[in-house]
UniProtKB/TrEMBL annotation:
Positions in coiled-coil regions: none
PANTHER family: MONOOXYGENASE, PUTATIVE (AFU_ORTHOLOGUE AFUA_6G14510)-RELATED
Pfam families: FAD_binding_3
Record keywords: Monooxygenase, Oxidoreductase
Protein name: FAD-dependent monooxygenase
Single GO molecular function: FAD binding
Record-linked SUPFAM superfamilies: FAD/NAD(P)-binding domain (SSF51905)
Domain called FAD-binding: residue spans: 14-312
Amino acid sequence: MSSTPHRRHAEVSGAGFAGLTASIALARQGWTVRVHERAEVLREQGAGIVLWQNSLRVLDAFGLIDEINEGSMTPPFYETRMQNSIVSDEAMPDIWWRTMTRPFLHSVLANAARREGVEILTGSTVAGATEQGTLWLEDGTEFEADLIIGADGVGSPVRDSLGIEFDRQTSRDGISRFLVPRKKAELQAIEPDTDWDNMIDFWNLEPRVLRVLYTPANENELYIALMAPSDDPDGSAVPIDLELWKSIHPQLAPVLDEAAKVEGKYYGYQTTRLEQWTKGRVALVGDSAHAMCPALAQGGGCAIMNAYTVAQAASESDIAGIPAALVEWERVERPITDRCQDRSQEYANTRGMAYGNQFTGDVNETTLYDPTNSHRHDAVV
Ligand SMILES: Cc1ncc(C(=O)O)c(CO)c1O
């Protein structure tokens, strides 16, 4: 902790997973923190999420694991099927992972941020920031800070106001995501030999590319995601083309019927890579810095892990040294996320997860990283 009387202050743009995680971590290190969320109501619109141990360790460091466990689950297996025959059942006994809904994770983080004294302003639309530490809103209001966190998503106004250059690559596939009731008894009645608590990745590459990712999120809610190429108008349609999806997977009819009732949105896979993640007193984390394809389910995980480490790195510095501490943070922490983006993009481009047994070897590098015991503390990186 700094011995100066000035309490360090951070302004954060975006109250998603990255912004809330950075806010909690900073507040716990004695900072005053104000988060700006452009939405009028603080909530998460997304469907489901898988968290692996890299992000779970951060939640554990915040003392949130009991709360997380109560609203989440670990499916017995990650099952991969090709044309409905099982390719692999991965138990991953050495990896800590949980599935849950995004609204649930968001509420756990938002409540924790409030408990830590973080000020959350909704309906507060950030327009940009300067590298000297001024954040400004669309209405012209300015806020001064020792540290600014741009956690404002793939279209980040903080990033773009600073003129940070990026490269964006799109992949040919994309996905629509839904939260629906589990309907476990009905599914069981249709296909009794299946363990409907498993996460099941139903791939079909022939006669056309259609994939259903079935992820139980808790006792009552199922996260179901439907993947198709963006140039397939029926596969990518939302509300979903119920007859098409039921014709491929009739055993999923009870939950597909539910997904068809939801408005939903189709998202094309893309990867955004930045020239730099920091500028002066500003650091970017989450989709503003490293949006990735979801194949390895690490977009949220990397957001949470990088939000945590940037907060730690800034807290270990004195106020004058923050810009240099951010540069050093990026040097040490970024490569693992770069590699995760590369691997996720490769899987998205090749559809390689269809062949099963994917969660082994180098692919698990991100999962196995412990951000609470960062490489920053090692002598050799
Ligand atoms: C857990 C997960 N895995 C893989 C994908 C994927 O699209 O490859 C998605 C979609 O968001 C997931 O949510």
